[in-house]
Design a protein that fits this description.
The complex is a heterodimer. Helices cover about 70% and strands about 5% of the residues of chain A. Chain A is mostly helical. Among the domains of chain A are: about 300 residues, no CATH class; about 80 residues. In chain A, strands 1-2 form a two-stranded antiparallel ribbon. In chain A, strand 1 and strand 2 form a beta hairpin. Chain B is an all-alpha fold. Chain B has a single domain, classed as Helix Hairpins (Orthogonal Bundle), CATH 1.10.287. In chain B, about 80% of the residues lie in helices and about 0% in strands. Chain B contains three helices and no strands. Chain B is elongated. Classes of the chains: A mainly alpha, B mainly alpha. Chains A and B meet through helix 28 of A and helix 1 of B.
Chain lengths: ~725, ~100
């Protein structure tokens, strides 16, 4: 922790000053007609928050350990007044986020429409060795602007929520320092101007994810979950690193500008190199964004505090993989095989995660699998080349999934107090122990219903537009004239439609089990169920507004004149699409050149409007029927229920046995191999060699000691003989 | 003239060395060491005729060191004698493994 603080502050010092810009690539200087407003400061503000909160956390730790050494328990909340270490983060944590958001907004508004090249700000030369030159540089373009807004905006709301959620936690300043550090790294990730800079953010958010999952580190299970996340991410990072090496080999640089500009000329379309690069990048993205088969860490990551799950494991960090694929859109467009793989992995992930979500009882686990499933949708979109749709779903998903997680957080918070006051030992996250919470938390219930309708893809909520766009583009590209994988895409389309309905179902199940039906908390606990305080509900309201209206930023042109666009009333037709055009147009051109124009009808016939109408009606029907069927069902409290006994339901409840399979195929063999290495290689061979050396030395010493007789004459004799031998050899054997 | 002098020196040195190796009495060993030193002195003096004055200079150094050594060595022998009541070096054999 201390090491982190010092290194990072030195970075801060060098970032802050108005440094002279080293020579930039010529393309960038031409486009630099627009001056971004303090882009370095956007990154620096969360870092500043980390430094301040980190200092407070160290101070609190020092106070605590001093008290423990004195034989006392230490609590920041004893004695009525909260110490400064636990008061200041309330201002600093959300404060720096608000400032960063304001700056990001300024840059977003000021960004000119005719900005066709990213504006790069280089701060210092990070690595210069041989031919390799890596600048510590940030870049601003349309894509990074959108990501910055999501990260700082949703991040700010979640910071505010955290003030209410974490206020009774002893590690309050530590929590905010990690959260601020996470935002810093996330901003480096989305603003970095090359794969190397991006990798810094990539690893940094992984670190913060690990720190925050294991935030309650005294609980073995939770710290293990942190390790699991870190290790699974590491597997993906191997792919990312190898891809970076290949990129360097092909282009001699890591910077986005030259790589994307030169990709079409230097790499054969569909060739081995570009396919290898994109598949390896995909491996990295799959690790970070929890795609099958590397999705196993994300549900376990729910061990962290709920706002962390909302920020890191739903809204921002896990979407880094999607961002990376969208950023590398040119490379993916050149590798149709990789595109089909990305889309396939995405759609498979969406399906598997959605099936698992239908049989989970832990409210956060349902949301975790829902996140995995939605990330699968984003990968499907990125895979089929609908990069705008991927980013669009990323944005709307950030809104409604953050809302769902924070709503779940409010529920858990309330349940925690109820269970605590009643002195019972109920699992406060198990939906079987909830039920009927609508009576106690009407506002949270209403807001979460909004998010549910949004994620279910029901018009006019945000999720409808983004999810429908993904599904429609899958259908349209399946019918593109010369798409070699047209049949496969048609299958993807069908699975995506099915998964969308499953989404509607498992979310309805979550809502019914949590908020409706009879209360199963027990009378003693139910008396203490309360609505969350305003500091927690206000961010929820803001997110709910975004979940309703957020989708309107990209009403598809084909739907604008139909019901979905209120027959032309909704403004901003395909705004996001046009906004991201400078980033995505190169990939789009390559794709059209390879696949031909996208079709105007789905594989089963029917146009965009028809399928949009059908999907929203089907989703609405699923919600209505699901609510009715599940609502009439009597759930029993978790203590009296061991879950589904057999059949498919059991398999889904046990998550398709992914963890068990990894345990059997990877973990146990690895453990056995490690044991063998320990018992044979280490104990027998290495230790044996060392021991044999020691034994030999002892033996030699014993033999030599026999010459030490203690007889002076003997020594004199040996000495004389030795001198004679030496003299003899030098004189006679010359 | 040189050859007989060096032969004498060699003979004296060999006798001294043999004495150090075979005799048990510490005083005799001591005398033999002095004999070795003086054999070397003889060789120095004999050779200095051909090589220059340095050989004779060294002889003075050797004599000085020999005198000092005699003083220290005899003191040690007396001290050992007081402890063991003998000067037989076979008895002084504790300095070993």
């Amino acid at each position: 922790m201390v090491i982190g603080v010092t290194t990072v502050t030195s970075t801060a010092a060098s970032l802050a000053g108005p440094l002279p810009l080293p020579a930039l690539p010529p393309t960038v200087q031409e486009a630099a007609s627009w001056e971004p407003v303090l882009p370095g400061l956007i990154v620096l503000l969360p870092l500043l928050g980390f430094v301040i909160n980190g200092f407070l956390a160290l101070r609190a730790a020092a106070l605590s350990s001093a008290a423990v050494r004195g034989g006392n328990d230490w609590s920041p909340f004893a004695g009525g007044t909260t110490p400064a270490t636990h008061r200041l983060p309330t201002i600093v944590g959300p404060g720096v986020m608000l400032l960063a958001f304001a700056l990001a907004l300024l840059n977003f508004i000021g960004m000119p429409d005719d900005l066709h090249e990213p504006v790069v700000r280089s701060y210092w030369s990070w690595i210069a060795t041989g031919d390799l030159r890596i600048e510590a540089a940030l870049q601003l373009d349309q894509l990074s602007a959108v990501m910055m807004l999501v990260v700082t905006g949703v991040g700010f709301l979640i910071h505010v929520f955290s003030v209410g959620y974490m206020k009774d936690d002893i590690g309050y300043p530590r929590y905010f320092s990690y959260l601020n550090l996470f935002v810093f790294f996330m901003l480096v990730l989305v603003m970095g101007s090359g794969y190397a800079t991006m990798f810094v953010g990539w690893e940094g958010v992984g670190l913060c994810s690990y720190l925050l999952i294991g935030y309650w580190f005294s609980d073995r299970e939770k710290s293990d979950a942190g390790k699991k996340a870190f290790i699974v991410n590491r597997i993906g990072d191997v792919g990312f690193l190898l891809a970076m090496f290949l990129i360097y080999q092909a282009f001699g640089t890591f910077d986005f500008g030259p790589v994307f500009a030169g990709a079409e000329g230097q790499l054969a379309a569909g060739g081995t190199t570009v396919t290898a690069i994109t598949l390896l990048l995909m491996l990295g993205a799959a690790g970070k964004s929890a795609q099958v088969p590397l999705h196993v860490w994300l549900p376990d990551a729910m061990a962290g505090p709920t706002p962390v799950s909302a920020l890191i494991h739903a809204a921002t960090m896990v979407t880094a993989g999607v961002y990376m694929v969208a950023r590398s859109s040119v490379l993916y467009a050149l590798a149709p095989v990789s595109q089909a793989v990305v889309a396939g992995v995405g759609v498979l992930t969406a399906l598997i995660a959605a099936t698992i979500a239908m049989q989970q009882y832990d409210i956060k686990k349902v949301l975790a699998y829902s996140t995995v499933s939605q990330l699968g949708f984003m990968f499907l979109a990125a895979g089929i080349g609908a990069f705008t749709a991927a980013i669009f779903h990323l944005v709307t998903h950030a809104f409604f999934k953050a809302l769902l997680f924070l709503g779940a957080g409010a529920v858990i918070h309330s349940m925690h107090h109820a269970v605590h006051h009643a002195g019972e030992h109920l699992d406060e996250q198990d939906m079987r122990n909830m039920g009927g919470l609508r009576k106690y938390m009407p506002l949270t219930c209403a807001l979460m219903w909004i998010a549910t309708l949004a994620i279910a893809g029901i018009w006019p909520f945000a999720g409808f537009f983004s999810k429908d766009e993904i599904i429609w583009y899958t259908a349209a590209w399946a019918g593109a004239g010369s798409n070699p994988f047209g049949g496969l895409y048609a299958v993807y389309w069908g699975v995506a439609l099915l998964t969308a309905l499953m989404t509607a179902f498992y979310m309805t199940r979550l809502m019914v089990m949590t908020f409706h039906g009879s209360n199963r908390t027990g009378a003693a606990g139910a008396a203490h169920l309360r609505e969350a305080p305003p500091v927690m509900t206000l961010p929820l309201i803001a997110l709910a507004a975004l979940s309703i209206f957020g989708g309107w930023i990209n009403v598809p042109e084909g739907l604008r004149e139909s019901f979905a666009g209120l027959f032309g009333v909704l403004p901003m037709s395909e705004w996001l699409h046009h906004w991201l055009e400078p980033v995505t147009h190169a990939a789009a051109e390559i794709q059209v050149a390879g696949f031909g124009e996208a079709a105007h009808s789905a594989p089963l016939g029917g146009g965009e409007v028809l399928w949009a109408l059908a999907s929203t009606l089907a989703a609405a029907l699923t919600v209505a029927v699901g609510a009715r069927l599940l609502g009439s069902r009597e759930y029993v409290a978790a203590a009296a229920d061991s879950g589904p006994r057999a059949g498919l339901a059991r398999v889904l409840h046990d998550k398709w046995y992914f963890d068990e399979a990894y345990e059997a195929v990877i973990v146990q063999p690895l453990l056995r191999l490690s044991r063998w290495c320990w018992r044979f290689i280490d104990t027998v061979i290495i230790d044996g060699f060392v021991n044999a050396t020691a034994q030999f030395t002892r033996l030699a010493g014993w033999v030599m000691s026999l010459f030490q007789t203690g007889q002076v004459n003997m020594y004199a004799f040996v000495l004389t003989v030795g001198v004679l031998l030496i003299l003899g050899t030098t004189v006679f054997l010359r | 003239m040189l050859t007989p002098a060096l032969l004498l020196s060699a003979a004296l040195f060999a006798i001294g060395t043999l004495g150090v190796i075979v005799r048990r009495n510490a005083i005799i060993i001591f005398l033999c060491i002095e004999l070795q030193l003086n054999a070397v002195n003889l060789a120095f003096v004999a050779l200095s005729r051909y090589t220059g004055i340095e050989g004779q200079l060294y002889v003075f150094f050797v004599m000085t060191v020999a005198a000092a050594e005699a003083a220290v060595g005899l003191a040690i022998i007396i001290s050992i004698f007081r402890h063991y009541e003998t000067v037989n070096v076979n008895k002084f054999n504790v300095l070993k493994w």
